[in-house]
User: Fold this.
Amino acid sequence: MPAIVRSEFALALNQVATERGIDPTVVIETIKAAILAAYRKDFPVTPEELELFTVELNPDNGEAKIFKEGKDITPPGFGRIAAQTAKQVILQRIREAEKQAILTDFSAKVGSIVSGMILRFDGSNIIVDIGRAHAVMPPTEQISKEHYRLNQRLSFYIEGIRETYKGNEIIVSRAHKGLVAGLFKREVPEVMQGAVAIKEIAREAGNRSKVAVDSSQPGVDPVGSCVGQKGVRVQAVINELGGNEKIDIIQWSLDPMQYIIAALAPAKDITVEYDDKIKTAVAWVPEDQLSLAIGRDGQNVRLAAKLTGIKIDLKSKTPPAASITPTATTDDTSTVSTPAQPAATNPPVATEAIPITEAEQAAAEAIKEAVAELTTTDKTEVVEPVTEIDKSSETVPEVTVTTPDSSENKDVAAKE
Assistant:
């Protein structure tokens, strides 16, 4: 088979179509429109007559001819003149066709994650290079705790394509919960193959996320598959999210009460009362687990409500009012409930006899004799002695008695 010699025009046509990612027929139609625009510049044509003109372009050698009602009216040397005149029009049309092709390509990728590099900052918006196109990340799609820098490579979630005053723009996000799902799909083979399904995600970007997973194959642990050995899989996802966001992976369940108990993790020993009519649940939590169930600023219970779609009221597990009894405090400062006891009237006081030595007994008798002698006087006021016995030295303390008719104190010392 003889070789086909292709002209420079055909080679250039295919090269442009390949580089820009557009169909060669689109390039040919663009060139035809540019040639007709160049002809109208040199030979004015009314809008009514414009429909009578047609352009034929040979895709092999690039020869162009203009026909009016089937008659060739191509001016001599028009090809080179038209190429120079129509250059800007061709470039503009090719750019538009390229942009439309890119938008069509990324329209099929909405809902997936893509790797990109931060290109520049446009006010509060961030321009991201995602390969063939530049995407925009508005402030609402940014993580508040993340600090972005130029040429930083990150994973982004393609949220959609929005029409703005600048035209259609590709919107990417770092705060969307779909980013968490896409990262788990990339890091966990079971999720990619469909053995493990991500049922629901509740996320507060930069702080915490809760992921409910379920298994469609018997023998596959959905939570263990997402966590990985020693947590390597979930840690890889956390690192992609900046390293500061916590992720709770829980078992999804058809039973709302079991689902709520799992969603309130890490709190334990929870009892749930669920009302299916009004989609409201009351969770009874032990006193020592209440702070875990609520979370910082109510974050844990708020994410659990988002995850389950049920309004959750937390209440502490306290004993009924009838069973409240006096409490006794033990040495370890914990409070223990004890049964109530009736009040005793004048309880007997048990005393223990203290042995008395001969010296102490002699000292006591001497004190008694001294007191008896002093009380014989009618106007004598006796102050009851206070006795302190030092057993180590076995000495008897001095006793001082003061009388009103005496000008000086009488000191009586009783010694052995």
